[in-house]
Amino acid sequence: MKPILIRALKKPITAVLLAIAVGFIIGAITLALGGFNPGRGFSLLFTGVFSSSRRMMQVLVNAVPIVMTGLAVSFASRTGLFNIGADGQFIMGQVTGAILGYYVPMPAIIHPLFILVSAFAIGGIYGSFAAWLKNRFGIHEVISTIMLNWIAYYFMNFVVNMKSVKVPGSQHSPEILDTAKITFFSREFRTTAEGEAFLAKYPWLESVVRTDAGYAIIIMLLMTLALWVILKYTRIGFELRAVGYNFYAAEFSAMPVRRNALLSMFIAGGTAALGGAMLVMSTSHFISMLGATEGYGWDGISVALIAGNHPIGCLFAGLLYSGLKLGGTEIQSRLGAPTEIINIMIGVLVLCIAFAPALPRLAERLERKVEA
Amino acid sequence: MEQVNNSALAVEMSGISKSFGSFKALDNVDFSVRKGTIHALLGENGAGKSTLMKILYGLYTKDSGEIRIKGEPCEIKNPKQAIGQGIGMVHQHFMLVENMTIAENIVLGNEVTKSFDRLDQELMNRTILEFGEQYGLEVDPEALIMDVSVATQQRVEILKALYRDADILILDEPTAVLTPQEIDSLILTMRRLVEAGKTVIIITHKLKEIMASSDYCTIIRRGRVIDTVKVQDVTEKDLANMMVGREVMLTTDKEEAKPGEVIMEIRNLTVKDNRGLEKVRDLSLTVRKGEILAIAGVDGNGQTELIEALTGLRKTENGEILVNGRHIENGLPLDAHRAGIRTIHEDRHKRGLVLDFQVGENLILESYKRSRFSGLFRFLSWRKINDYSNNQIDRFDIRPAGCAMQKAKELSGGNQQKVIIARTVEQEPDLLLACQPTRGLDVGAIEFVRNALVEQRDQGRAVLLISYELDEVFDLADRINVIYNGQIVADLLPQETDEQAIGLLMAGGTA
Q1: CA distance A129 to A127
Q2: Are residues B321 and B222 in the same domain?
Q3: Cα dist. B379→A79, A237, A242, A245, B92 in Å?
Q4: Angle of the A311-330 helix axis to the A215-233 helix axis, nearest 10
Q5: What is the mean pLDDT of each run of 10 residues along chain B (511 residues)?
Q6: In 10 A of CB A162, how many CB atoms?
Q7: How many domains does chain B have?
Q8: Are residues B200 and B272 in the same domain?
Q9: N or C: which end of chain A has fewer CB within 10 A?
């Protein structure tokens, strides 16, 4: 019995599962303190996610932006850079998507590809600017990327506020052209007679038709896979990981450490911006004046932490995160408990992840006791 | 050890066992130390000597066995109880508060106060100065820890123990961080402590220092006591054999060198350190194929800056470095590599290894670009890398066997160094820079490293050895260059000189 426990404690996934459990326990206590029935709260949370295929699809759709920012944070982390700037890079992607999506008419298929490549490049340059500042002037990336977040945020508001951009009488940019949208089915399609007929014929596609599901999901999966392959199977990835663990040894082994910092932040920034552009192209369709950032980049930091900076892990962590958020709205609407409960649970979860390194040590101590 | 009256023993540990998981670190160990002696505890890395002392100091609890201090049985559960028994320990890594003064560090936790809880600075300073005079541990009580040398910090640690009335002093690898002169001074201090009736236990794997300082020596191998001997009755070689458990060669066998053409030529090189001081000044030297050129010198005479200039880590002010006819001054590490230089860096944790990488990944750290490690679409083939790593692990006897997937930080120092050597040698460099290649290693690993260097030489490659240990210089060198104050002050053949002469040159004298 005990050796199994000890072996389990040494596995990184155990820490994550334990953290999730603790998050739920604290969530339950908070619910109870607020005078709500925790059992009912959790059952609502559960059904809020799993009661229909459409809801599950919605979780997947909502996960795309935070998985992308999660990937952006974790990829940079693996190479020793703490990319706080995913939020700003994401916003640059949103701006790119909204502007190119409306002002540069192009044929279908080519239009979204053009936007995605541009967003990746712009986000990449934005991200690698922080790496350049570090290489050239020794400015720590945490400082510079935080500042760049603010710059991106105000830049977006500035762009939306321009006379030529803002839709009169509104607080947002014009809706992007249909050619730039990347959902499998348009929103209008749901309500047309044709759409009704289609749904009647293929009821199993309901979850796809009635949500913003689209190519963004496929691109997210491809990016996850690509980043994992880069880190594990390429020479550049080998160099990046070496730099991440020990800059000095990598430098001494004649690896191009400065160029790699630029490259790493380019890929990270590009990935985050891709997330921003895809959000505009599949769900929001325009950018708005905002009083604060939507915080996708910050959610990405939590996702990366839960994922232990592993690309594949980001996928699952993003889904968990998005599932909790969606289920949380259910707790609010049906039980009347504030969604902040969910934020508390996520907060506790991330906090518990920070304790993860203690577990193998605990295992060793247990091991000694068992042996004695 | 002959039977002695119990009251003459300061420490008596009997039947001590200690396991970590399934690993038996100490197995029924008996260890006694006579009052008023210097007693060395000798063993290879991981033999259990530190564990035994940590039990005595209350940092680990023993699984079984008993401890008597000055004849009295006692249970030591934590360092506080150990200090109460008059035991003090100076750890390998000092535990001092950097931004406090020496006096404050010494009294920390035992402050002397006047009325209203004010510190009695004057009395503290006086006490420290008195101690210092008595034992040869002179320090400036007002100086900040961060401003003083490592040797002084060690003195502070010893004073700290003495201030807490320690009469049994444990020193864990005390000489690892010291220069030869500082070692002499430490040995003197140990003598004075013993004269004053105190007992000193030193943990070490350096034979020479045991011969120079200790009265008794207990040898531990793989958690068991091999023997306790009177140092004056044995030779260095006896100790080495007992420690390793087989015949070891303290000197390396090698044939006469057959120096060939010049591989590297340094002309009038000047290099500044980070503070802008010229550490290498107008230095010139040549290294030939098939020879080991040793640069002898005291730490801090420009060796570090010279290596950094040669490996592309530091800009040069003046002069040229030609390797195989290529200029590499003011280049990048890549330029040094392309010119055919590979380096065994003195700091293997910082520069030599990625500790969080697997052993296999470390073995290809400089050669991952080779096609032999890639498969489809030039992706890295972990199957090929693992085959290669397992092969190298076998060939270089890196332990534990089959550790390709283990993290480098889980290996012992000697095996980590073997990983570096395996990686470096495999690349067949024209010039091998070996900087303190045996630092912190035990006798068995030292033997391995030195033989590997000689083998490189015999294969017609050039080896530039930078070492602070004269033993090593004389053991390996085919030619010796003495560095002092950033310049080569002598170019000698080992058979034409001796340690005294070189030592004098190293200190800035003339031969």
Answers
A1: 5
A2: no
A3: 19, 10, 17, 21, 44
A4: 150
A5: 64 90 83 94 82 91 91 89 92 84 85 75 85 86 84 89 91 78 88 92 87 93 90 89 77 83 94 88 94 89 92 93 92 92 90 92 92 86 93 88 86 87 92 89 84 92 90 91 92 88 79 53
A6: 9
A7: 3
A8: no
A9: N
Residues of B in contact with A238 (CB under 8 A): 361, 368, 380
pLDDT per position as a tens digit, A83-123: 999 999 999 999 999 999 999 999 989 999 999 999 999 99
What is the nearest CA distance from B381 to chain A, expressed in angstroms?
7
In chain A, where are the structural domains located? 63-326
In B360-420, the DSSP E strands lie at: none
Residue B64 belongs to a domain with what CATH number?
3.40.50.300
Residues B405, B433 within the same domain: no
Same domain, B335 and B455: yes
Contacting residues of B for A235, CB less than 8 Å apart? 368-369, 374, 378, 380
B208 and B122 together in one domain: yes
Helix, strand or coil, per DSSP, at residue B288 = strand
Q: Say if residue A41's pLDDT is above 70.
A: yes
Q: How many CB atoms are closer than 10 A to CB A117?
A: 13
pLDDT at residue B177, rounded to an integer: 67
User: How many Å lie between the alpha carbon of B337 and the closest alpha carbon of chain A?
Assistant: 7
Strand partners, B467: B296
Largest Cα separation within chain A, whole Å, is: 77
Domain boundary among B210, B244, B278: B244
Do the Cβ atoms of A368 and B311 come within 8 Å? no
Render B134-165 in DSSP notation, one character per residue. Answer: HHT----TTSBGGGS-HHHHHHHHHHHHHHTT
Integer CA distances (angstroms), A62 to A58, A105, A218, A324, B212, in order: 6, 27, 13, 11, 73
Report d(CA A185, CA A77) in Å as an integer: 36
Q: Which domain holds residue B164?
A: 6-244
The whole-angstrom distance between B379's CA and the closest CA on chain A is: 5
A246/B353 CB distance under 8 A: yes
Quote the tokens at residue B51: 């564990």
B283 and B229 within one domain: no
| Residue with more model confidence, A16 or B394 | B394
Distance from CA of A21 to the nearest CA of B (A): 29
Please indicate, yes or no, if residue B1 is contained in any of the structural domains: no
**Cis check: omega of the bond before A311, within 30 degrees of 0:** no
Identify the pLDDT of residue A162. Answer: 93
**Token pair for B74:** 């006692």
Does A196 touch chain B if contact means CB atoms closer than 8 Å? no
pLDDT in tens, A321-345: 999 889 888 888 888 888 788 888 8
**B20, B356, B369: residue with CB nearest A368:** B20
Instruction: Please determine, for residue A372, whether its predicted confidence score (pLDDT) is greater than 60.
Output: no
Among A75-89, A171-185, B138-152, which stretch is predicted with the lowest mean pLDDT?
B138-152
Q: How many CB atoms lie under 10 A from the CB of residue B383?
A: 10
DSSP state of A170: S
Q: DSSP 3-state assignment of B370?
A: coil
What pLDDT sits at residue B116? 75
ipTM: 0.82
Residues of A in contact with B366 (CB under 8 A): 253-254
> Are B218 and B277 within one domain?
no
What is the pLDDT, as a whole number, of residue B207?
A: 84
Residues B397 and B463 reside in one and the same domain: no
A4 in contact with B at a CB cutoff of 8 Å?
no
Which residues of chain B does A237 touch, with a Cβ-Cβ cutoff of 8 Å? 380
- Residue B472 is predicted with a pLDDT of 87
Q: Which residues pair with B333 in a beta bridge?
A: none
Average pLDDT over chain A, rounded to an integer: 90
Residue ending a domain, choose from B244, B273, B307 = B244
